[in-house]
Specification:
The complex is a heterodimer of chains A (569) and B (186). With 569 residues, chain A is mostly beta strands. Chain A contains four helices and 41 strands. Chain A has one domain: Methanol Dehydrogenase, Chain A, CATH 2.140.10.10. Chain A starts with a strand and ends with a strand. Helix content of chain B is 39%, strand content 3%. Chain B is built from seven helices and two strands, in the order ααααααββα. Chain B is globular.
Amino acid sequence: MTTIHALPQRVRRTVGAGLLVALAYAGTALAGAYPPVTDARLAAAATDNGWLMFRRDYAGNSFAPFKQINTHNVMNLHLVWSYRSHLKQGYESTPIVNGQYLFITTPKDHLIALNAVTGKVLWKYVWPMPGVGFKTVCCDVVNRGVALYGNDVYMATLDNYVLALNATTGKVVWKRQLKPADVGYAMTLAPMILKGMVIVGESGGEYGARDFIQALNAKTGALLWRRWTTAAPGHLGGNTWPKGMYEHGGGSAWITGTYDPSTDTLFWGVGNPAPWLAKLRPGLNLFTDSLLALHPRSGKIKWYYQYTPHDTWDYDGVNTPVITTLRYRGTTYRAIVHADRNGWFYAINRLNGKLIYARPFTRATSVAGFKNGVPYTNNALRPAMNKQVFTCPSFLGGKNWWPISVDPLTHLAYVPTIHTCMTMKGAPTFYHPGLPYLGESFQVVHDPADRHWGALQAINIDTGRQVWNHESNLPWDAGAMSTAGGVVFSGSARGHLYAFDARTGRVLWRSAQLSSGVIAPPSTFMVNGKQYVAILAGWGGGTPIWGGKMVPVLKNIPRGGHLYVFALR
Amino acid sequence: MRTVRAVLVLSLSLAAWGIPRGQAGIPALYTLAQARSGHRAYEHKCAACHGKQEQGLVGPALRGPIFASPKANYKVRDIFLFLSVNMPAYAPGSLTPKQYVDIMSFLLRQNGFPPGKTALTDAMASTSAVPLLYHGRLQSPTRHARAGGGCGQRPSASRSGVHPPPPHCKRLVAVLPGASVHSSAD
């Protein structure tokens, strides 16, 4: 095992004023020519040898066609190299790979380029944030990774910048701030590249920000369109808010969307309304907790589907909307599947936004059922100023952002899950820029019917029913990845990378214990005919902060980031 | 403890003047005993996320010119209402009213508000419109062994950048003859 501690022989300031730490040679000397990332390669990312975007392809399946590592030999995986990062906050980035270049981000927006085969650091860029208080970052100072286009690499930052850097040198090409820091907005997501645009979404649902999805010109950083996620009067959905409340209505867009080329539709999930206490804002509060189907050139809405109407439980609808095809009760559908914070697994017709089916994948009492394809809630479980309720799942969700993977061969969705409920009660609140805007007090507790905090489960996308389930004493907070080799990979809070049999859920292999717990998704790539699996360990994120009764059992998980790359012996 | 004595001297002399104000006209909103008790509660219930020196970690810094800035425009009541309802994050509202008031006292102290004779109460903290601004670092008698320093120390780095020495440091040292000066560990 090669732990890379060695860094820089040269340190200098870049044009962008960030701290760039680079080896004496350009990246190309250490990792070969950089293969430009074209629109054609992005369109075919599912079959690329690298891992070019957040969920591997525009459909968001996180399914790789590689078979070299498979159910018969996965137990022979061994560590090829690893890289350690000293920051103690959570690591949520997916290793993104192009040719021999591998990119990760760390907490507080450091970006590191490494040789994917040797682990040599090519360059390291530290985005400086002088004067930034990180006041309106709810759930750890995380970053979920980069996007690639042309010869550039893109990152969104906690102080609301979008940055383009040269992929081989780490030099800033352009930067653009969308909102000031510390007044409600922050960005944590991996950007998306589509048709020459870089598309990002803002967080801030806990602070009364009015959130949005933003498209910029990928070459220049020029602003192209902005899709506000709370509807203003006179616009579609504008009558679903009390006067003026959309202006501080939240609707964060903090997870990367997906794109369907067959209908030219951009899909993006929207988060919770603000303040949390729904009694303060009667109405459906569109487009919070909704799936948006957008025209990618304009950001205009084609249709929407609201997962949780008039939310009071913080059930963000941001989890990845995965594009797939399924067969339900004899009919084939071009569909979106999505495991929501509210505990329901949704299949939605991606041509028209109509519900195909919805089934709970963990205990779900707040959203009680569906009428004509529209969800309804149990109004007895809505908190008020002097009314405490007990409901499920907790605001952390049946699952949080940790992305699912959908395997087109097994027709299974692999779903990281937590088994939590919560108490929740109304509390005073007021809007002040930079302060939380909640109006509720709450605590996460155990699902009384399940003694495990977490699970990774497989759900048949043709039925919505569970096929296998791997229960875990600790919450399962990491993303999933499936491969044509019949193996599903995901990391545990205890710090093991797991390889499951995709069909049965049998554990085929488990890595030695990593130096910290895992909250990031894995990725896989091929270089010179050899398949690698990469995973970033580094416990943190929202669970150890807001996890209530879960927090004590998580207290001893060591902190610190560590990227591990495995291959067959 | 020399530091303790120095601050006692300071508060006694303020009491003698009969004005509930510290140096530079900064209101004295709490007592030293409250800040001390608040320091202990802070270490148990808040430090894991906000840092042992309130410098910020997964939660924001709760001390310094970026936290308590004119731009942020916090009143004491804004911060108190938030922390007493929603903190600590894993068990919001779980402390006693006294613990919250003591922690607020401690945070005032860490942001350079001087202690006084009158104790802070829940009602006062919930309604106080005093601007919560950073007034520099006081000698910190609530931190014994690792002593969070005061004037004369080098600028300290934290999650939210570098804390410059407060503007009125010279004056503060002058009113505290014999006070020991520590450097901070953060």
